[in-house]
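Problem 12. The chain below contains 161 residues. Write out its predicted structure in C-alpha cell notation.
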Amino acid sequence: MLIKNANKINPADRCAPDDFFVVANMNSKILKLILGFALCISVITMAGAEEQWIKVTGGKWDLSPKMLSEIKTRIESHVKKHAKAQGRELKSWQSYTFQYQGQMGKNKRYIFINALCDKEMKKKDLSKEIIRVLDGGSCFFSLKYDPISKELFDIIINGEA
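Solution.
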C-alpha cells in the first residue's frame, strides 16, 4: 500500500476494500509474530522451571509412574521442613536434579532419592550410578521413600567443608 498525500486523496479512495485487506493482512502477520515470540519465551522459561528426575539403572526393582508422582508431590515440603528445623537453607528447588532407584533393605522395598544442584555433576551420565558427594552443603541431599507407608525418611542434607 502506498501512502499518498492526504490532501490529494479522493474521498472515495480513503476506505478502499483493497487497502483494508492489506492492513488486515499486515496486522495478522504482526499478531502471529508477537504470539509466536510470546510462545517461545514461555517455553524457554518453563524449560528450566521443573526439576529433573533421572532413574538410575541397577536397582533391585522398578517403581511405577504413580509412585514417582507421589514422591514428587510430597518431597519438596518434607525436605524444606527438615532443612528449616536444622536451620539450613536450601537452594532454589528448580535447581535440583534428582536421581532415584528402587532398592531393598531388610527385606523391605524403598526408593533411594539423591538430589544435586552442582552444574559440574549434572554433566555426568546420572542414569549410570548414584553420585555420592561428601560435604557440598545444601546443594546435595538424599532420602528414602517407603512405597507402602508412603513415608519419606533418612534424610541427609550435606554439610559444608
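Discussion. The chain has a mean pLDDT of 80. Students who got a different answer should revisit the alignment rule from Section 12.3.
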